[in-house]
Structure formats: structure tokens, C-alpha cells
Design a protein that fits this description.
Elements (H helix, E strand, L loop, with lengths): L1 H17 L3 H44 L6 H7 L1 E4 L19 E4 L26 H17 L4 H6 L1 H7 L4 H34 L6 H31 L3 H30 L5 H15 L8 H14 L11 H38 L4 H12 L4 H29 L32 H7 L1 H24 L4
Antiparallel strand pairs: 1-2
Helix pairs in contact: 1-7, 2-4, 2-7, 3-14, 4-7, 4-8, 4-9, 7-8, 7-16, 8-9, 8-13, 8-16, 9-12, 10-12, 12-14, 13-16
Length: 483
């Protein structure tokens, strides 16, 4: 108890001395204002995007259902839209969401990519990153921590008071922990109100009706950010304790901050993309089209592959023309063509995703030497604004598109006659009530266990960093000198 009492006294002394500096008060106030702005802008972005997504998803559905009696294959080409709604935690962590599209046009025989990203409609300033609560917690608060802690012990060494402090029955371990708690107490003046506002907005966006999955995500979001900030508090104190002067401590800490938050993340991305080079979008689409043409063109009646199918059907049903088949031949061929083209697309997509997975794995591995990358990846994963969430949306949309096209093909096979209408006859159609057989698209975000599974490296990295800091405190307590 006496030991803890000494550590608390040291923490209180540091906290009181920090606010005697008016610059610290101004900087803290400024970051507080930035946090409020980030919360407001995040809330506006979330509500605007989801209102827009809901509006156009509803309009797309209404347009689909309002189509008149029509040939089902024409309906498959008429297509539909899939919109991705944001999750509540994306209010605080924008992640990659502004740069990925949130809408995909779904049509037969063609797989489109997501469009209408926020970056596509914004000016060039967006490339410098938007101000989010996660960005402030992950980038600005560590810088503030270093500013608060660079002279925590180095200044006392310079003044000669460190010797006096250690001679009064205080050991290095108590001093290090006390100074760390003092810096943490100052940071908590920003962190705790931020979390209170964060939780309130999060509850408000869900009408105070929360799921178990989202609750776990929120708790992990808060818990890991707290651990992340404590990590920087310990680093600041250790660097200050091992530096001869406050100036050297400040330069070292700023260097660490630059390497962690700016240099390493960008360098890692560039190296990963260089080592595991991905094909361009044009090359990707071109390779798919070439492979599909090798299999045949379902819209070409004389295509070798589909002519062989026709001949086999005529033999099986013992007829001499497709008009005499007991089902719609064109719909059957479209079903086969959709199956083949989707299979080829999925094969190419799987190969492309393997390249991206290698790039991302390289970045995640670097998180073992950079806690910022680990925290950023985990934060984006929990808020469903990471790359994996974008790919998950693409896959859900593709599954919906394929089922929609095949359902229309099945309707054509079942209800459309093989006999072509004459010049004065009505086009072959089916009743518009069948359009309701295709359910409306609903995007389902990844669950917490899927997130933790994909971000297990980040979780392990942060955990190992925290363990390492406890070890460093014990080592420093035994080896540090007052001079």
C-alpha cells in the first residue's frame, strides 16, 4: 500500500505540474475541439451515407418491382443495385470507407466493381485523410503524450532533483510507474469524455437497441485504444528516463512518433505492393474476357461449345429443332453461360485476392515492430471499414447477382415458349408478379469472430507490445542511473 501511495503522489505531482504550463492547456483544449469536430463529422458522414444508401436501395427495389410484364432475360439485363450501409462504429473509424465504393450495379453475365466512393466526389484534400476520432486517438494523442512526457524524468536529472527523489526512499520502479500514471491521468481527461460521447452517439444511432455482436466490438474498440495509449505513456517515460537531457528525449520521441505513424505505414504499403504486384483493373478484366471467350459465347448460336450442348439436347429429347424442346432453350443456354462466366470470374478474383492477401499479410507482420499499424488494422476491422469488409461486400453482392440472374433464367426456361413470335404477335413475356421472387439485397457486416479471426495478428501484436513494456520497466528499474 505504501508503494502504491508513493506512485499516486508522483502521478498527482506530474499532473499538477503539467497544467502549470499554459501551452499544455492550450494544446489539450485544441485536441478536445478536434475530437468534438471529429465526432460531429463522423456522425454526419454516417447518417448521410446510410440515408442515401437506404433511399436508393429502396428506389432500386421499387424500380425493379414496377417493371411491366417482360421477358425474364431482359429483366436480368435490366439489373439491380446493391448498396452497402455503414456500421455504427464507422462513425469513429472511417478507415478505407471513403475510398471504396458503396454501390454495385448487378446485371447478368457481368461482374461490376463498387462505385460512388466518397473520394470520387471529393477534392484532392481527402487524400490527406479525414479527421476521425480514431485518427485523433491513434495519431494526435500519442504526440501529445510524448510532449507531456519527454521531460518527465530527464528534466529532473538535469536539475539534480532526481538524486534527491531517489534518496528519499523512492525506487526506480515506483518512479517509472508513478510518472506513467501521471501522464495517463492527463490523457484520460481527453479519453474518458471522448468515450462517453462515443458510446452515447453509438447508442443513439441504434435507437438504444444494441446487439451482442456490436457491444463486443465497441468494448474491444475502447479497450484496445486504452492499451494503445498506455503503451505510449510508458514509452515516453522510459525514453525520458534513459535520456541525459530533455532535448534529447524530445528529439527521440518525435522520431519514434514519425517512424510509427508516418514513415513505416507508408513504406510498408509501398514495399508490399512492390513485392506482391497485382494486375491492373484493365488487365484483370481483359484476362477474364479472354478466358470466357475460350469457353464460348452464350449469345452466339453458332459457338462451338454451345452448339455441342444444343446437339446433345436434341439427341436426348429426340427432336430435330430447339423449338420442339419441352423447355425454353435460350434460357437453358443463358443458365449455362452464367454458370461458366461466374466460375471464371470467381477463379480470377480468388487469384487477385491472394495477391492482396499477401500484401496485407506483409503489412500485418510489420505490426510486430509497429503498434500503430496493429491498432489501425484492428480498429478498421472492428468498425467494418477495412479491406476485408469491402471484399465481403463484393462477395455478398456477387452471390446476390448470380442468384438473381439464374432465377430469371429459370423463369425463362419454365415459362417462355421456344416458338418465336411473329412480326405482329406480342413479345414473349411473363407476369410481373414474378419479379417479387427476387428478394431485396441486404448487406450483412462481418461478425465479431470473423473480425478477430482476420485480425488475430494485430491482437497478438498489441498484446505482445504490452507484455514487452512490463518487461522493459523491470529491466529499466534495475539498470537506470540517476546521473
Amino acid at each position: 500500500m505504501k508503494s502504491l501511495h508513493k506512485e499516486i503522489l508522483i502521478a498527482k505531482h506530474l499532473k499538477n505540474s503539467v497544467f502549470k504550463n499554459s501551452a499544455v492547456f492550450i494544446i489539450t483544449l485544441f485536441i478536445g475541439i478536434i475530437l468534438l469536430y471529429a465526432a460531429f463529422s463522423g456522425w454526419k458522414n454516417y447518417t448521410n451515407q446510410n440515408e442515401t444508401s437506404e433511399k436508393y436501395q429502396h428506389e432500386s427495389r421499387e424500380d425493379w418491382l414496377k417493371n411491366p410484364d417482360k421477358n425474364p432475360h431482359r429483366m436480368a439485363h435490366y439489373g439491380n443495385f446493391a448498396f452497402r450501409k455503414s456500421t455504427p462504429l464507422s462513425v469513429f473509424e472511417f478507415g478505407m470507407e471513403p475510398f471504396f465504393g458503396n454501390a454495385i450495379f448487378l446485371e447478368a453475365h457481368k461482374q461490376n466493381t463498387a462505385n460512388f466512393s466518397e473520394a470520387g466526389f471529393s477534392n484532392s484534400m481527402l487524400r490527406f485523410g479525414e479527421i476521425s476520432i480514431a485518427m485523433v486517438l491513434q495519431v494526435l494523442l500519442p504526440l501529445l503524450i510524448f510532449f507531456l512526457g519527454f521531460n518527465a524524468i530527464a528534466y529532473e536529472r538535469e536539475n539534480g532533483t532526481l538524486k534527491l527523489l531517489l534518496s528519499q526512499g523512492i525506487n526506480w520502479k515506483q518512479l517509472l510507474i508513478g510518472k506513467t500514471l501521471g501522464i495517463a491521468s492527463v490523457i484520460m481527461l481527453l479519453f474518458v469524455p471522448t468515450i462517453i460521447v462515443l458510446v452515447f452517439i453509438w447508442l443513439l444511432l441504434q435507437d438504444f437497441s444494441i446487439s451482442r455482436d456490436e457491444t463486443i466490438k465497441m468494448l474491444l474498440f475502447i479497450g484496445f485504444h486504452f492499451m494503445y495509449l498506455m503503451f505510449f505513456c510508458v514509452i515516453a517515460v522510459l525514453v525520458s528516463a534513459s535520456s541525459k537531457t530533455s532535448k534529447k528525449a524530445l528529439i527521440t520521441l518525435i522520431g519514434i512518433w514519425l517512424v510509427f505513424t508516418i514513415i513505416l505505414p507508408r513504406t510498408t504499403q509501398a514495399i508490399g505492393a512492390y513485392i506482391y504486384e497485382a494486375p491492373s483493373k484493365v488487365q484483370f478484366q481483359s484476362d477474364i474476357e479472354k478466358d470466357i471467350l475460350k469457353q464460348g459465347d452464350s449469345h452466339n448460336p453458332n459457338d462451338f461449345h454451345y452448339k455441342a450442348i444444343k446437339d446433345s439436347l436434341l439427341r436426348v429429347y429426340k427432336v430435330d429443332s430447339v423449338q420442339k424442346l419441352p423447355f425454353n432453350y435460350s434460357g437453358f443456354i443463358m443458365t449455362e453461360g452464367e454458370r461458366i462466366s461466374s466460375k471464371i470470374y470467381n477463379q480470377h478474383l480468388a487469384a487477385l485476392l491472394q495477391v492482396y492477401e499477401k500484401q496485407n499479410s506483409f503489412s500485418k507482420t510489420v505490426s510486430f515492430i509497429n503498434p500503430y499499424i496493429a491498432m489501425k488494422n484492428l480498429s478498421m476491422g472492428l468498425s467494418n471499414t477495412d479491406y476485408d469488409s469491402y471484399i465481403d461486400f463484393q462477395k455478398q453482392a456477387e452471390d446476390y447477382r448470380y442468384n438473381m440472374a439464374q432465377k430469371m433464367n429459370a423463369l425463362q426456361v419454365k415459362y417462355i415458349s421456344n416458338k418465336k413470335p411473329g412480326p405482329n404477335d406480342k413479345p414473349l413475356t411473363i407476369n410481373k408478379e414474378h419479379w417479387a421472387d427476387v428478394a431485396e439485397f441486404h448487406y450483412e457486416p462481418k461478425g465479431i469472430w470473423d473480425v478477430l479471426k482476420s485480425e488475430i495478428v494485430s491482437v497478438l501484436s498489441i498484446t505482445l507490445w504490452i507484455i514487452m513494456l512490463f518487461v522493459l520497466i523491470r529491466i529499466a528499474a534495475k539498470n537506470l542511473k540517476a546521473i
